[in-house]
Amino acid sequence: MRRYIIIASVVALLMLSGIVAYLMLKRSSDGVASSLPKDITMVARVDFQSLAVHYGLSGDHASSIMHKLLWYSDDDIDGIDYLSNSYAFASQGYFGAVVPLKDSKRFKQFVEQARSCRFEQQRGLSWAVVDFNVLLAVSDDRAMMMGPAVGSELDELRNTIAACLKQSEEESGMHSELFGMLAARNEPITLATTYDALPAQLQPERLGQYVNFSSLYATAGLTAMKDRASLSIEFSSTDDKMNRMLDKFDEALQPINGNLLQTAPSNPALHVEMGLNGEHFLNALRSIPHMRTKLLFANALLDLDMIIKSIDGDVAFSISDKWVVQTEMHSMKFLDNVSGWNDDITRTAGIRFDISADKSHGSVLYKDDRFYYGVRGNRLVCSPNEQLSHADAHNDVKYDFNTDLSQYSLFATVEAYNSFIDEYLPKAERVNIAAKDIRHWSIDLIVRDGATLLDIF
Length: 457
Fold this sequence. Notes:
21-stranded antiparallel sheet, 2 domains, 21 strands, alpha+beta, disordered N terminus
């Protein structure tokens, strides 16, 4: 009898575990994701509950995170289910979003009041045009919007949205490669996109003749904490030619040694430093046809190939009142040829090279602009300010970075209050950018002492 009781208890426990697991999976399933169009070129997921927890709040504060970040209002957005994921996407040249609802009636009332619009009933859904060119549809458990569109485009979007809201998971973008990339990330805000989702102005036309940029994918994850927001970005490609090009540039990068942080000008608004092997970098440039042509033209004026090959170590660019470029070199032999660069071609181009007798400094005159350069050990310094090209500055760059720079190949820091960032984010301290290699990047937005991340919005 006791044996039967034990068996019955085990069976009951297994059944209970199964029920709990099912309910958990059902709750954590991306229900509204089934409304994503099949042909998405970009998709983003927002988990407001996780965002609040990472920020140091309880999951119950998810709504306050949303209205602070997105609506610039102290009013809660009524009717949204903040404990489930929301999505944004791009499809067919439009941008859109799908949001889970816990009370569709309250949500519609909020939208009507906040956006001065009215809903109408059609096809079993509630429809409204928001901000003149965004079409919004509301069902019992979700809201979906797409735009911008006007005139007959709105009618076409109405058909698209209605179909998306009624489709199954198998018919949706959930089974796309892009959504699989999104699902592999676990940050509170995640994004996966193709190159084709970028505006045409951002697509390098000439380089696109050499490699297939349509094969390029990017995924990103954003985590918000009280003193900073951290964005991690990863690039990948399905094209062998693209991957070979990326690999060549990876070979040119090497770990930052940080030597040039100490010789940068005081309090630069921008400081960029990267580790570079010049010979590998030149090979990477030569692998791109139109860059190879540009190098041929440049070498008619000066021995640029020899200069690039001589780079070995960190290369830094800083802006304070004037810009300064510093480069660690394994050889300065190219300076032996500077005086010989003054020929008919350079004179026709309006260029004049000068160098001192001991080759420790010189200048380049280009039309009415003069740039100065100086040698400091294995360091070549160039600037439009002659004093900066001679100075041995010892001013550590403030970058508030919480990891060892030697694990990165590129690092940049921008002081917010000395740049355009201050106009938009007045309580931000700085922005740091770092790359481990050509495919893995991170961006940190750091707030000023005494402020929190939410204060800057």
